[in-house]
Amino acid sequence: MNTLKLSTLIISPSPRQDHEMATYADRLLKSIEVLQPTLPLDSSTNLSPDEIKEATPQSRVAAVKVIVHSLSHLSTTQFPDYNDLLSLTFENLLASCNDKEADVRVAADEGLNHLINELYGSDSSRIQVELFKEIKRNASPRRVKAAIVRFAELAYLIKPQKCRAYVMNLLPLLTAVCNREDEGIQESLIATMPKIVSVLGPFFSESELHNFLKNLFEILVSKLSSSRRMAAECITSLCHSCLKPGIFYSISLEKMLVLTITQDASPHALIGGFPRP
Q: What is the pTM of this model?
């Protein structure tokens, strides 16, 4: 959960800041506090669930709606702390996508979609950064899925001059996410990797592409069918979108043949080597 103390975000009145903007910002911050569990004053590192106080599910759903409405209103103003509030909002809504109550998860998911649809025209770069930060946290499967799906949908908005920087920073994170043995994450990668690499693929260096493919080929012999399927789809997408597709398709085919003809090849390697009919 967010480590930034909400009390450090000061809403300083100024001649340009009217009472209405300050009211919306105050409501947003108070609603974020509702989403965050309250720990006892003498809390230790090992707390039982009963020692952690949470607002009711209805209160959390209401808080999510207030947060979305307040940030939507502030996006049309010149509020000084708007960027900080946007960051707090996305972090807490993404965290709420892993709430134990389904109603809260649905509200958070709908809230994220609403904000992205409303703000992507003016704040796409900031939203991409917040989604990137969530992928970097590599937290619960629901949170990772919520972030990577939305990042992929907005990937086409990444400016060409920023693509190389994204490749250098995102590639280790994608490698870590691909290594997770969670079926929900793997299915998300199957759907999102083509959208991500269609934009960033041409900016991969050959060494980066070789290393990423090497990691995917290791996953291709996994015992989990969902992992093998994810690795196969990602390999295909990477080869298709890189600057030298013919060369990397040939390299990949050679590696798959090696997997299938080795004397000690496991059934998983045989299945993973030829994932498509």
A: 0.84
